Amino acid sequence: MSVTVRIPTILRTYTGGQAEVNAEGATLADVIADLEKHHTGISARVLDDQGKLRRFVNVYVNDDDVRFEQGLETATPDGAGVSIIPAVAGG
Amino acid sequence: MAVQTVASSTDSTVDLGPAAALSCRECGHRVPLGPVFACEECFGPLEIAYDFSAYDAEELRKRIEAGPANIWRYAPLLPVPADVADKPNINPGWTKLVQADRLAAALGVDAGKLFVKDDSGNPTHSFKDRVVAQALEAARAFGFTTLSCSSTGNLAGAVGAAAARAGFRSCVFIPHDLEQGKVVMAAVYGGELVGIEGNYDDVNRFCSELIGDPAGEGWGFVNVNLRPYYAEGSKTLAYEICEQLGWELPDQIVVPIASGSQLTKIDKGLQELIKLGLVADKPYKIFGAQAEGCSPVSTAYKAGHDVVRPQKPNTIAKSLAIGNPADGPYVLDIARRTGGAVEDVTDAQVVDAIKLLARTEGIFAETAGGVTVGVTRKLVEAGLLDPAKTTVVLNTGDGLKTLDAVAGTGLTATIRPTLDSFREAGLAS
Predict the structure, then answer these.
(1) Closest by alpha carbon to B127, among B245, B265, B291?
(2) Domain extent at residue B179
């Protein structure tokens, strides 16, 4: 499954400044693992020491917040858009 | 929570008064002052770290008391330049702290012990003027010329007004189905107002993505890339409450929760006043208030969780309808640390509380004020709020913005212009 991942500004040092990159994987966990392969260090910024999504990271697969879905096990269908966004906005 | 102070004077060339750097609330990672809001190490929220080391308590108190009757009397404690009061700004704050004896009697609180901090008296009739005023100064410092935000309504009006006064362009984003009063109040200042097909969390997500896109380059989003500065404005509520109580801490304070930023910064403000010696240290309790239809923090509190599971909002209290509150975990920490609580009320209880506050104190609150008064009643009934202790309840906005909430309220009678008709209607004393 090939997906497009939108990268927030604070992680673009890992993607050579690219705001959008492609990644492979059937679930969000797979996609993050694939991102790590090509952009070393990015996984540790998104996941905590226990391998869970950090509490101040929001991830959307298409329009769905993965916390309302299956978290890291959320399916990432072919052609899906994945957005990684800092959670500390708004209010 | 300790007051963040630093030994060195500044890490930055930007002049924002005592603000010295940005520091991550989660991991402590520090970066120079700039238009950034999330930690590059852990995504945690960046906060202002100050250098207050030069202040003497007595001199500072005198300086504050001699200052203008607005938030700039506290400029020495805010991320703003020393000459902030001379710049074009809407100068919010120094709103009334109303001793609410008739409301106290209705709620079972002792006479003389209940106060309403009525922030409907701000220039655009909500507490948002306080936070926008800080963000405006940061926007000036960082060279932005467009002010923007995601808003549940009140913030949109505050940004529009502040931008108009300061000569900035504004372009703000709101859920498409907001109360008409808030839409008009946001639009009248002449900036661009964009309705997004979705709820507030969708709007917030959109703004967070726009900020990383060339389309949003050069924009100061007050509650996104300027959020560390913006959020500090809520500290002025704490400063004013203490000064208006005669430089004393309240024993209990009831605060509405949307993102949770206001509650966390009120706590930060109280802690700063203690640390600076402007008030005597004593225990205080902070209570959080939500509407049942959007109660992710209250739900987490009651379940004993330290993380907040997002909800899809469904409540008339639209200014509090943030289903994924950024500062939710910190609200939980503060409520537990201070011995407070987080409670919620139904929409019907919100409406009852709006009417109760209006008929007992002459204060017409928007739905968020109904939430805090309704929750206060519930806390007293549950024995969680001590009726003998000094308690401050926040009203953060004007009821004229949410007229639909009390739409059933209207004429007592329609009569002919005659005395007979008046008597027939049963209106004679």
Answers:
(1) B265
(2) 128-230
Measured between CA atoms, the residue of chain B closest to residue A66 is B310
pLDDT given for residue B3 in this prediction: 45
Inter-chain contact B40–A10, Cβ cutoff 8 Å?
yes
Q: Which residues of chain B make contact with A89, given a CB cutoff of 8 A?
A: 37, 150, 204, 207-208, 221, 223-224, 227, 326
Using the predicted structure, report yes or no on whether residue B12 has a pLDDT greater than 80: no
Mean pLDDT calculated for residue range B402-429 = 93
Structure tokens at B101: 């004896």
Asked if B379 contacts B336 with a C-beta cutoff of 8 angstroms, the reply is no
- Give the domain A2-86 fold: Ubiquitin-like (UB roll) (3.10.20)
Looking at the fold, whether B265 and B189 belong to one and the same domain comes out as no
pTM for the full model? 0.94
- Chain B neighbors of A45, CB-CB under 8 A: 40-43
Confidence at residue B216, expressed as pLDDT on a 0 to 100 scale = 87
**Cα Rg of chain A, angstroms:** 12
d(CA B315, CA B293): 5
Q: State the nearest Cα–Cα gap between B204 and chain A, in angstroms.
A: 6
Mean pLDDT of the region A49-64: 93
> Of B229, B211, B54, whose CA–CA distance to B141 is shortest?
B229
Q: CB distance B43–A67 less than 8 Å?
A: no
Closest CA to B258 of B393, B119, B151, B404: B151
B238 and B188 housed in the same domain: no
From the list A19, A56, A87, the residue facing B213 with the nearest CB is: A19
